[in-house]
Design a protein that fits this description.
Blueprint (H helix, E strand, L loop, with lengths): L2 E8 L4 H17 L3 E5 L9 E7 L23 E10 L6 E4 L6 E5 L4 H9 L8 E3 L6 E3 L4 E3 L3 E10 L6 H11 L3 E8 L1
Antiparallel strand pairs: 1-10, 1-11, 2-3, 3-4, 4-10, 5-6, 5-9, 7-8
The protein binds zinc ion (ZN).
Length: 191
């Protein structure tokens, strides 16, 4: 069985704010019982810090569709918080990207090689400041400003909801209020 992740990326943050914002979100969502307890051990891969939480007892109130199995021991039903610059989306599919300067769309980008891989590999070192040149107009613009399809976001903080039903608008708005950042939702399917 494959796992589906809804990923909420906080696209206006900088890394130095991300940790404090994560703490604020965790405290609030645990109070509301949307998040359960911390699952120890899922931490620190590369430059990224990951914390995994169990699904809280009130999680069904913030999704649409079927309730989440609460008693499952599968970590894939929990919520992972990812701190550190990272690409949030599905790394196994090809993406198209639209230049923010001229609107030209580049097709068939992958994380295996080429410009998307090159840019993504630099985003952590460059703290989100990575610029990309457009093959059509030549303009160099921030990677953060390019529009990807299917959705792909570069952000220093994100939450990965494992196998939850579609998140409610209210939850996304709450997360925007708590973070002081726009929140955008991407998807990943892990076989
Ligand atoms: Zn362009």
């Amino acid at each position: 069985m494959s796992d589906h992740y809804q990923i909420v990326a906080f696209i206006d943050l900088q890394l130095d704010e991300a940790r404090a914002v994560a703490t604020k979100i965790i405290e609030d969502l645990r109070k509301r019982k949307i998040l359960g307890g911390l699952i120890p051990g899922a931490d620190d891969a590369n430059a990224t810090r990951r914390m995994l939480f169990k699904t809280g007892d009130a999680a069904a109130s913030v999704i649409t569709g079927d309730p989440i199995p609460r008693q499952s021991r599968r970590a894939a039903y929990g919520v992972e918080i990812v701190i550190g610059w990272w690409a949030h989306g599905d790394g196994d599919v090809t993406h198209s990207a639209m230049c923010p300067a001229c609107g030209h769309v580049t097709e068939e980008l992958t994380f295996d090689d080429g410009p998307l891989r090159h840019a993504a590999s630099k985003i952590a070192d460059e703290q989100g400041g990575t610029v990309v040149g457009c093959a059509s107009c030549g303009e160099e613009t921030l990677l953060l400003h390019w529009r990807f399809s299917p959705p792909l976001y570069f952000a220093p903080l994100a939450m990965r909801f494992g196998n939850w039903g579609p998140l409610s608008i209210d939850l996304v708005r709450l997360l925007e209020t708590l973070s002081g950042s726009r929140a955008r939702v991407a998807h990943e399917l892990v076989a």
